Amino acid sequence: MARQESLIQLTGSVGNIIFYKSIDGYLARKKGGIAASRIHSEPAFARTRENNAEFRKAAQATKLIREPSDGC
After folding, report:
1. Closest to 26 in 3D by CA, of 14, 12, 9
2. What is the pTM of this model?
3. Could you tell me which residues come within 8 angstroms of residue 34 by beta carbon, excluding any fewer than 6 positions away?
């Protein structure tokens, strides 16, 4: 993990480097992860899409339960 040692303390991103503040001070790291377009289209991520759909349905049901109704 890279540490920022200059007088300028950045947060946000510049190119492929993300600057952020943590309990250890200001840090920098390289962007990572898989592009959303790959998850939406590649057959290798079919199970991930199924899990996301199930989570979406559970979140919508929870919202209906927790949201106050207009009639009360």
Report:
1. 9
2. 0.55
3. 45
* 3-state secondary structure (DSSP) of residue 3: strand
DSSP structure string for 6-64: SS----EEETTEEEEEETTEEEEEE--S--HHHHHH-GGGHHHHHHHHHHHHHHHHHHH
Nearest to 10 by CA among 22, 24, 20: 20
- CA 19, chain centre distance (Å): 15
Q: What is the dihedral of CA 18, 21, 25, 27, to 10 degrees?
A: -10
User: pLDDT tier at 66 (50, 70, 90 boundaries)?
Assistant: very high
- Per-residue confidence band for 13, with pLDDT thresholds at 50, 70 and 90: confident
